[in-house]
Amino acid sequence: MRIQDMNWQMVEAALRRDDRCVLPLGCTEQHATLSLATDTLLAGRVAREAAEGLGIPVFPALPYGITPTFTAYPGTLSVSVSTYLALLDDLLSGLQAQGFRRILVVNGHGGNAPGQGWMGEWLARHPDARVQWHNWWNAPRTWAAVQATDELASHASWMESFPWTRLEGVSAPEERKPMVDLNALRQLPPAGVRALLGDGNFGGLHRRPDREMLRIWQEAVAETRALLETGWA
């Protein structure tokens, strides 16, 4: 159940039946030829499809995250780690105060990792709550499906190129781009990152056939749904 399709009375009724909810996290950053909102679109969609039919509220995906590395690419917006953790604290504490006790965080952006490390601090202050932090794209079953398709998969490559992250009228290069030197990349300021990366793809093809992508997507949805249903301590 998407929160945007509910009013407050409907959420109150849902809470009387169930204490679970889903909070997707994304960001707004360059993804080569793909949408700047790729991570937000994917996190929100996998969350919605995984929760379909379960009667569990799915909140709108948070569209901003921690991505200072890409700020030399126009359209990328980054928030500081301190701002991000404060926002997560407010959101999770608000959910807990309203009665949600089992919260699945579906994260779509690797740069948001500080939130995962901080989660233990929040749980120590809210011992009655349970939170699962789920990096949907590299969870075991999904990542195995990615690797079985093509081992050279990375940021802004084919593994993020779904029909709903591509842009109409934008073509993608056909080259299989060599993997960037990640150690060198991590040492550079934003302008240097852009100079090294070019279009933004870390390495690999820009696209693969939709039949392959949909197989991976189905695995990701099933893996996320399993966490919602049986992943609670």
TrEMBL record:
Which GO biological process annotations does it have? riboflavin biosynthetic process
Q: Which InterPro entries match?
A: Creatininase-like_sf (IPR024087), Creatininase/forma_Hydrolase (IPR003785)
Identification of the protein by name: Creatininase family protein
Keyword Metal-binding, does the record have it? yes
- Similarity-based family: Belongs to the creatininase superfamily.
GO MF annotations, alphabetized: hydrolase activity, acting on carbon-nitrogen (but not peptide) bonds, in linear amides; metal ion binding
Q: Which SUPFAM superfamilies match?
A: Creatininase (SSF102215)
Pfam families, per the entry = Creatininase
Key word Magnesium present: no
Query: Which terms are listed as keywords in the entry?
Result: Hydrolase, Metal-binding, Zinc
Name the needed cofactors: Zn(2+)
